[in-house]
Amino acid sequence: MTTNTTTNTNTMTTTPDAAAAGTWQLGDRTVHRLGLGAMRLVGMPWDTTPRDRDASVAVLRRAVELGVNHIDTAAFYFTPVRSANELISTALQPYGDDLTITTKVGPARSRNGDFEEMARPEQLRGQVEENLRQLGRDHLDIVNLRWGTRMAGEGREPESVAEHFGALAELRDAGLVRNLGISNVLPEQLTEAMTVAPVVCVQNQYGLTSREDDAVLALCGEHSIAFVPFFAVGAAVPGASPRGGADETGQAEVAGVAAAHGVTPAQVRLAWTLHRGPHVLAIPGTGSPVHLEENVAAGALRLTDEELALLDGIAPAAG
Ligand SMILES: NC(=O)c1ccc[n+]([C@@H]2O[C@H](COP(=O)([O-])OP(=O)(O)OC[C@H]3O[C@@H](n4cnc5c(N)ncnc54)[C@H](OP(=O)(O)O)[C@@H]3O)[C@@H](O)[C@H]2O)c1
């Protein structure tokens, strides 16, 4: 199916190394399968205090030290006083050659943070250029068309993505973008996008207890497209979503597997996603240096067949 590799190490070293998760080819970029999501570095709208700026800069720098070379961001990740792209630019310039920054366009946000209508196709260029300015780059490694505003399980409709994806394909042809991906899509929308331009990654909500997109994950595998789940850890973390509560499904099973390995439940959830296929990449979001180290270490965690069977049974595949 693919020529990508996974490093088979069963040892957890003192200093975690993102390389232990193996690598994946994202178009013309090679990344470690264990990356970092930048959304949490700015804090969330419902947080009562902003994230400490220096701490977020330190998390980014530490992530790169630990071998993370795939960072997910967006110009629309901002709070009144923090911008994910600005933090990345401040922390990581001059960028290393092997660093891949993936960004997203589509949703428009007003300057006071309100989400507005999805951008029209002709407005995507402006959003790409906004990312270029904020990140301080002349081209973007990967741009996802972040489709719609609805997440898994909330009744998405298969509207056509062709016009928007076509607009991004033009920007790729113009050299502003190297590779394209798509986010929050159904299988038919991915299939449609693939007829417009090569798709290197799909970013959908997915995790141990949120498996509505098993079919999308499988489709990506068939086409050697990376599947990049978000909210794989946070679903079980109190306060990680605006709803406040955490999904407690399978808590006992996850805790049992975690105890057997001497790791945390969050690490097991993350490792489970990576076991879903060599094309699955992780982008856990954190502003915590401790969680960062744990998440990178989870890339080296190898689950047994018995453990995987137990975990797979918690919320069996959709459909
Ligand atoms: N395409 C899209 O529509 C979309 C939507 C949402 C997010 N994303 C991207 O995907 C990335 C990941 O999604 P996400 O940040 O929502 O969810 P996530 O990474 O699954 O979870 C983040 C939450 O879990 C906590 N956490 C992280 N690591 C932990 C650990 N080892 N132990 C305990 N708690 C831990 C974080 O808090 P701490 O900060 O305290 O660690 C935060 O509350 C984002 O950062 C963003 O780049 C994309």
Describe this protein's structure.
It is a single chain. This protein has 319 residues and is of the alpha/beta class. It has a single domain, classed as NADP-dependent oxidoreductase domain (TIM Barrel). It has helices at 53-65, 84-92, 124-135, 162-173, 187-196, 214-222, 251-261, 265-274, 289-298, 305-312, and strands at 23-26, 29-32, 36-37, 70-72, 78-79, 82-83, 100-105, 107-109, 115-118, 140-146, 177-183, 201-203, 226-227. Bound molecules: NADP nicotinamide-adenine-dinucleotide phosphate. Residues 37-40, 72, 104, 146, 183-184, 203, 230-234, 237, 240, 264, 266, 283-288, 291, 294-295 line the site of NADP nicotinamide-adenine-dinucleotide phosphate.
